[in-house]
Amino acid sequence: MTSELTYRGRFAPSPTGPLHFGSLVAAVGSYLDARHHHGKWLVRIEDLDSPRCIKGAAENILSTLDAYGLHWDEEIIFQSHRTSAYQEAFRLLNENGMTYPCACSRKEIADSVLRLGCEFIYPGTCRDGLPRGKAARAWRIRVNEAHISFTDKSQGNISQDLATEVGDFVVLRADGLFAYQLAVVVDDAFQGITDVVRGADLLFSTPRQIYLQRLLGLKTPSYMHLPVAVNTQGEKLSKQTLALPVNISDSAANLYKVLMFLRQNPPVEIKRGTNSQILDWGIDNWQPGSITCHHLQVAE
Ligand code: GLU
Fold first, then answer.
1. How far is the CA of 21 from the centre of ligand 1 (A)?
2. Cα torsion 291, 295, 298, 300: sign
3. CA of 133 to the centre of ligand 1 (A)
4. Rounded to the nearest whole angstrom, what is the distance from the C-alpha of residue 266 to the centroid of ligand 1?
5. What distance in Å separates the CA atoms of residue 157 and residue 260, rounded to the nearest whole number?
6. How many whole angstroms from 135 Cα to the centroid of ligand 1?
7. Which residues contact 284 (CB under 8 A, 6 or more apart)?
8. Are strands 40-45 and 77-78 parallel, antiparallel or unpaired?
9. Which atom number of ligand 1 is nearest to the Cα of residue 10?
10. Statement to judge: residues 130 and 271 lie in one domain
11. What does the alpha-carbon distance between residue 169 and residue 162 come to, in Å, rounded to a whole number?
């Protein structure tokens, strides 16, 4: 178990739009867990996928966190400034023969592969070399018989057979950007993160991240995946499903709503409190064991 003195948690939003209730759940959950353990809570802006980033969204997210009383420690890091660290990790993987160039287009993969849920399992076409006359597009990591298991603090025991359930996955994309899976591993290690608390939409990305941590000789943090907030149609709250931004004027009500969503059973009196009173109650009474172990939960 992480000692209280060394706990380092984080919230790592992608600046693709303003915070909505779903991202507020991840922010508050990671904040309460960190503060309950007298730990640090860091913020990292995941603006790596520049085509998806929206101008002004990072500033908007940060000012919303601040207005909600979610004050972070240390300097914020921006993934857009971290390319050389990702390059170095990529170089190491390359040096160890763990990467290979891939010429397949999305369409070629889609036409020839097995589909598990909404993920394609790469069939390994370029594993032993690029087909003649084809140029490299992306770079993949070799997945050799990796059966990864971990115990998630909210979702329990999770196992994934990376070779049959995911396949060789992309670490350097065809557009030249490093993939989220690589960047998150490098950055969590760089920031000394001991405890990752985030949405369960990333639960099945975690084995890929643990695999990369092992290849790069990095420590694996502990993980807690919170239920993802969905609307009554069962769709994840997101920009695509037109989730509304959380307003600053409703901050106390929204913080209370997050405590309810996380099944913390807050007393109704604190609903009329200030943000810091609500958060302090949440820190003192934090019961991660009460969080339902569902991946999805309707935000009411
Ligand atoms: N940037 C990701 C998101 O906003 C979160 C990544 C993570 O917490 O590892 O969904």
1. 15
2. positive
3. 37
4. 27
5. 25
6. 31
7. 36
8. parallel
9. 8
10. no
11. 9
- What is the atom index within ligand 1 of the atom nearest the CA of 184? 9
Range of the domain at 100: 84-180
Q: Are residues 217 and 257 in the same domain?
A: yes
Per-residue pLDDT of the chain (300 residues; tens, 9 = 90+): 555 569 999 999 999 999 999 999 999 999 999 999 999 999 999 999 999 999 999 999 999 999 999 999 999 999 999 999 999 999 999 999 999 999 998 777 666 665 555 567 888 899 999 988 888 899 999 998 789 999 999 999 999 999 999 999 999 999 999 999 999 999 999 999 999 999 999 999 999 999 999 999 999 999 999 999 888 887 877 777 777 889 888 999 999 999 999 999 999 999 999 999 999 999 999 999 998 777 777 776
Pocket test for ligand 1, best of 8, 21, 198 (most atoms within 8 A of CB): 198
Same-domain status, 19 and 161: no
> Which residues does a 6 A CB cutoff place in the pocket of ligand 1?
12-14, 46, 184, 198, 202
The 10 Å Cβ neighbour count of residue 293 is 13
**Residues 139, 230: one domain?**
no
Global confidence as pTM: 0.93
Q: Which atom of ligand 1 is nearest to the CA of 13?
A: 4
Task: Return phi, psi of residue 127, to 5°.
Answer: -55, -40
* Pairing of β 228-230 and β 114-116: unpaired
The amino acid present at 219, given as its one-letter code, is: K
Answer for the pair 131, 161: CB distance below 8 angstroms, yes or no.
Answer: no
Ligand 1: centre distance to CA 15 (Å): 10
Count of structural domains, the chain = 2
